[in-house]
Structures are given as structure tokens and as C-alpha cells.
User: What shape does this take?
Amino acid sequence: MYHYVRNNEEYDYDCYCRRITEFESQVDFLRKRSDIIDPKDIDKVNYFLKNDSVSGYILSFDDGYKDHLYCAKYLESIDSNGVFFPSLVSTNGDLLEVNGIHILIGLRNIKQSEILDFVIQAVKDNDYLIKKNGEVINIDDYFSIEHENRHDKNDSVIFIKRLLQKDIVGLENRKKIINEGLNTFYNQKENDIARNLYLSKVELIKMREMGMLIGSHGLTHRWLNTLSYEEQFNEIVNSFIEFEKLNIYISGLPKVFCYPYGVYDENTLKICNEARISYSFTDDLNNCGITIKDKSHSNYMYQLSRWDTNDYWNSEWRRPKQHNAKF
Assistant: This one.
């Protein structure tokens, strides 16, 4: 699983990423170790999933960043490919909240505690409510419940993510705070950031023509386990319909879905079955509330976990840290 693949010093903010040389060395390691599987080859995918004695790897790329155009070109140059997961809203030029948050917490020379104080003040100024453990509360009660030090760097980041991803009630309220924060601290508008951050429709079509599989990350990159059945159906099924209209996805190719934030529920699995999704990716089965390890189970193909390539990598030796990674 890849997200950003870039050299941070070439950008205005830092993010959790793989450097370009690290990406290349990881791919080289995997090619020498085993097969990099074509994600369009369902028979081969099934073969490796059902045989514990052999290893194969699918390279997957989330969120549709422009970084991934380089990745696709590199994979094509070595006769390999991967599956790429954009969201429709980012393809249409809207900034995903998750990326707005990444920028805010990654800005240099600005303390994360300053960002958190800005978020708290915005919540108070607008009388926004917070939802904690299913209960709607105000911002002061929210912090009185928590025991972490919100002025600690790491805790500030945790609180910023929690509040702006889901704890502030109302998607539009969260988006408003993110956009105001970007204007205040980054001095850039949402559409300008999105245009420079995400793959365009033309670039995605070009990648598909290079042999890459374009899957879906949903229409709006929302937490599926917080949505109704109907809302999830729209996010999953209609995303493929819209991508097909744009010529990004071609009918007849495997439908591969990646759950935003890695989360899902029983409704998600039911919809994947009904929509005949070929297979779906999460992040870690143990964090999703549903664990199915039986490969004969009908929902197994909709709960495939992935190794995050940001973890367990020793750049000096260009290989996984052996005590953590299972290779």
C-alpha cells in the first residue's frame, strides 16, 4: 500500500511518504523476492491467495496523487503494473479533507498546537458540536474527557485528525474549518491545491492505457462504517459508473475497491457482493471490527489486508526490517 511517493524537500510541507529511491528499491526487492501480480489477472490473484506456500504481491496506490503518475511510468518501464485508487471528488478538482489535514499538520515553522488552537477556536466561534463515543458534547467537555496533553506535539496531531476527520459534527463544518485553516496558514485555495495534488482525468486515462488498473476509493472518500446502506451503495457502486462515464474505468475489467481509511461494516460487504466487486482492500483486518481468515468464506475477497510500505522499511539496507515484516 502506497500513498505519497515523493521527496519532501521538493514541497512546501512534510508528509508521511516513501522517497522515490525508496519506492524503486522496494519494488526491486519485491521483484527479486517473488512475483508482482497483475491486479487484472483474477486467476493469478486467486492462486496466490489460496496457496500459502507461495508469495506474490499486488502494488496498490491510494488517493490518486500526481506522485502516482511517476510510479506508473516506472512500473511500465520494468514491465510491471499496479492498481490505483482515486476518489471521484479529487478527480473532479475538490480537495479531500484528509489531504487538507495532511497539509496543515505538515507545514514547516508552524506548531501543531497552533493549528489545534485554531480548530478549537473555530468550533467555539461557530457553536459546532462534537460527537464523542456516540454522545454529542461541546468542545470543552471533549477535552475534559481526554487525558492526553493537547499541547504535546504528538497529541496535538491526534486531536487535529480526530476533530477534522469525524468528531466535529457535520461534514460541511469540518470542511469549512479545513479550508479556513489552509487560507490562514498556507495561503492557498482549495481548488489550486487539488489541481496540483491529484491526478487529472487525462492522466488517469493515460495510466490505464499503460496497463495500470484504476480501481475506486469511493465517490467522496468517506468513512463507510458511519454511513447508511444507501449511502454506502452510492459511494461504491456509483463510483464505478461515474469512472466508466469518464473513460477511466473500462467495463469488463475487474472491479477493485479500496475502503477509505480502511474501515467497513457488514453493509459494505453485502454491497460488494451485490455489485460483484472482484476484491477489496482494507488496511488491517484487526482494526475493522470484522475478522475473517477463512479463505473459503464468501466475504474473504472483500477483506484483503495490506502491508503499508511506510512501515518496517530499512532504507540503508533496502529491505524490510526483518523483525517486523513477514517476507
Q: What stands out?
A: The first helix runs from residue 20 to 33. The two ends are 15 Å apart (CA to CA). The chain is about 45% helix and 10% strand.
